[in-house]
Amino acid sequence: MRLTPAILFLWAQAALAADPQIEHLTAIASNSHISVHFSLAHAFDREEILQGLQSGVPTGFTYVVEISRDRPSWFDEGISRSRIEVIATFNSVTREYLLNYRRDRRLVRSETISDVVQLQQRMTTIDEPDLFDVGNRPPYKLRVRAKADLTRGWLLYFIPWEISTRWRSVRVQPTETKP
Predict the structure, then answer these.
(1) Residue 41 lies in a domain
(2) Containing domain of residue 170, as a range?
C-alpha cells in the first residue's frame, strides 16, 4: 500500500513536464541535395536531464531524419535515413561542457562550451546543409520526417524507458529563385 503514493507522485511529476517535440522543421532542395533544419522544444524541461548533465554523465539526444518519396494511396518509398547524435559531457575541473556532434556514427565536430544556455541551444537546434543526395528526383514529391530520442528515463530507479518525440513530417520545398 505504501508503494501506491510513490508511484502516483512519479506519474504526476512526469505528467507536469512538457513533452519534447520537434518544431520548425524545414527541408529545402538545392542542386539535388536536401538541406534540413529543425529544433527540439522542451528538451531540458525534465529535471533528470539537467541533473545528469550537471553531474558529468554524458547526456545526449539522437535525432533520426528520413527522406522518402510521397506516394498517395500506397507505401512511401524510403530513400535515405540519417542519424544525428549530440552528446554533452560536463568537466567539473574546468567547469566546461564538451559537445560532440556525430552524423551516421562519424564525428563531425567537437567543441567546448562554458555557457549552459548556449549548450542547450546547440544541442537542440539542428541545421544540416546537404544532408541528403536525391539525384534527379523532383523535390515536390519528397517528404522529410524527423524525431528525437532523448536519454532514458527511470521509473522507480530500475525500470528504464526511452523518452522520444513523435515524428514530424514536412514536404520538401524547392529552392526559391531570386530575381
Answers:
(1) yes
(2) 3-174
At residue 49, the pLDDT reads 81
Total tally of structural domains belonging to the chain:
1
* Alpha-carbon distances of 29 from 46, 91, 133, 164, rounded to whole Å: 35, 40, 9, 27
Strands (E), the chain: 21-30, 33-41, 59-69, 77-91, 96-103, 106-113, 125-133, 142-155, 159-164, 168-171, 173-174
pLDDT tens by residue, 108-148: 999 999 999 999 999 999 999 999 998 888 888 899 999 99
CA 146 to chain centroid, in Å, comes to 8
Q: Is residue 71 part of a domain?
A: yes
Give mean pLDDT, residues 39-58.
86
**Does 179 fall in a domain?**
no
Residue 29 and residue 27: Cα distance in Å, rounded?
A: 7
**Is 81 part of any domain?**
yes
CA dihedral sign of residues 78, 76, 21, 128: positive
Q: Are 67 and 144 in contact (CB under 8 A)?
A: yes
Specify whether the CB–CB gap between 138 and 36 falls below 8 A: no
Give the model's pLDDT for residue 64: 96
* pTM (predicted TM-score): 0.81
